[in-house]
Specification:
With 146 residues, this protein is α/β, with parallel strands linked by helices. The chain has a single domain, classed as Rossmann fold (3-Layer(aba) Sandwich). The protein is 38% helix and 19% strand. The protein contains six helices and seven strands, in the order ββααβββαβααβα. The strands form two sheets. A five-stranded mixed β-sheet has the order 4-3-1-6-7, sandwiched between helices. A two-stranded antiparallel sheet has the order 2-5. A hairpin with a 3-residue loop joins strand 3 and strand 4. Helix 2 packs parallel to helix 6.
């Protein structure tokens, strides 16, 4: 589905803690960090997606089966391939690069190759939590409530 007009898009990384059953993507992940990132994305961005290690770029209201996979366990080549798939999904779904800014709420492994692909294509990219450990990320979300 092509999204025609957006200005700010959130990209939230998946987490290891999940429900054990098929769920709506935004409800599948159960960690405190994901809950805070979700809440922030829902209130601050025009649209938001989940970056899933298994399913790539996923719309928050889609349903998926639970899984036990993380980019942290993938090889460099596998992470690069994953990033290329996500990049193509973003290009297919989002409007032209000049019409939106992408905000990453995801760990380094989710950003390492993807950001370069996006920047080279002309997308504007922001990483508001870059360099923050989990405790500092939780504090950041607490300080940036809607």
């Amino acid at each position: 589905m092509l999204v025609k007009t957006l200005s700010e898009v959130g990209l939230v990384g998946c987490v290891k803690q999940k429900k054990k059953v098929r769920s709506r993507v935004k409800d599948l992940y159960t960690s405190e960090l994901f809950a805070k990132a979700r809440r922030y994305a829902e209130t601050h961005y025009d649209k938001w997606f989940i970056l899933s290690a298994k399913y790539h770029l996923v719309e928050s209201n889609d349903y998926i089966d639970t899984y036990d996979e993380t980019l942290n366990e993938k090889t460099r080549a596998e992470r690069k391939d994953w990033s290329e798939v996500v990049f193509e999904q973003i290009r297919d779904i989002l409007p032209s690069p000049s019409s939106c800014t992408l905000y990453f709420h995801a760990g380094e492994k989710y950003r390492e190759f993807l950001i370069r692909l996006l920047l080279d294509a002309g997308y504007s990219v922001r990483t508001p939590l870059e360099g923050l450990r989990i405790g500092k990320q939780l504090s950041w979300y607490k300080g940036h409530r809607a």
